[in-house]
Amino acid sequence: MHFHAHWAKAASYGTDADGERITREVWGWSDLSPDDARLMAEQRAQQLTAPRRPDPDNAYGYPDRPLREPVLRRLADSPALQAVISRNAYGCEVLNTDRVVFIDVDLPDLPPPASPGFFSLLFGKPKAPPAEDPRIAIEAENIALLEYWQRRHPEFSFRVYRTAAGLRYLLTSALLPPDDPLVDDAMEATGADPDYRRLCRVQKSFRARLTPKPWRCDMDNPPHRFPFTDARKTAAMAAWLTAYARAAAAHATCLALLDLGTAPVHPAVLPILDEHDRLTRAKSNLPLA
């Protein structure tokens, strides 16, 4: 996984195709020292003076460089498994793991769910899905793709979640790296988001958002991005986080729907699974955000 202790920003100057002066500002990173991060930033800035070249550090996206995110805490740190919680550019807490497999499936134009649906049988009282709820049929059709794949690989089990924009699958029975052919095969078979698949390969980790997206909680995006370079920005971000925590408390990030497969939960996955479900409020039936 690519998270670094030191960050520094540098600028480089040039001219565009019309002869106008341009400035490029980029970040450098290092685990050695702030000076080493500054040196990298200066080197990268010199490479970005080509006319009209976009600055890749100004967008969140799925970058091909280390994620500029603070590590909030570590859930596992060993040769067998690494797992950390970071905060992304939108202010959300994100679980990053190098071997606990998460698969994200986006379902375009998905209507909001009218109820938890029949998949909530496992985690609550039986509830029949309303006939007018089209989301249930869409979800069932997509979960069937995972079920078909899992039947061909019965040594694997999954927990299936509903998200605001689709589905999330967590492999509970094994630890696998992002470059394992079985992971790629499962993501291909289930229609995983292409940007997410690229992120996993480049960052050598899986990611799962733990807290709601701010705009789904009627919140603006954070006022600043990490690292916060002065006291004013630090204070502004602290105030935003306080307001965000209040707004996020009324929402869940995903809803646990069902467990698929009979293979037991891997001992190393269990604490990650429990923490994921606790922080996402996956068994709360709160509105998804």
Structure explained in plain terms:
The protein is α+β, with helices and mostly antiparallel strands. Helices cover 29% and strands 23% of the residues. The chain contains 6 helices and 10 strands. It has a 4-stranded antiparallel beta sheet with strand order 3-4-5-9, with helices on both faces. Strands 6-8-7-10 form a 4-stranded antiparallel beta sheet, sandwiched between helices. Strands 1-2 form a two-stranded antiparallel sheet. 32% of the residues are buried. Residues 50-62 and 114-131 have low confidence and may be disordered.
Structural class: alpha+beta
- DSSP strand tally: 10
Overall geometry comes to globular
Rg of Cα set: 21 Å
Helical amount among residues, as a percent range?
Answer: 25-40%
Percentage of β-strand residues: 15-25%
* DSSP helical segment count: 6
Largest sheet data: 4 strands, antiparallel
Runs in which pLDDT lies below 50 for 5 or more consecutive residues are 50-62, 114-131
Compact description:
By secondary structure, the protein is of the alpha+beta class. It has helices at 34-47, 134-152, 181-190, 194-203, 231-248, 269-280, and strands at 6-15, 21-30, 71-77, 82-87, 93-97, 102-106, 158-163, 166-171, 206-209, 254-260. Strands 3-4-5-9 form a four-stranded antiparallel β-sheet, with helices on both faces. It has a four-stranded antiparallel β-sheet with strand order 6-8-7-10, with helices on both faces.
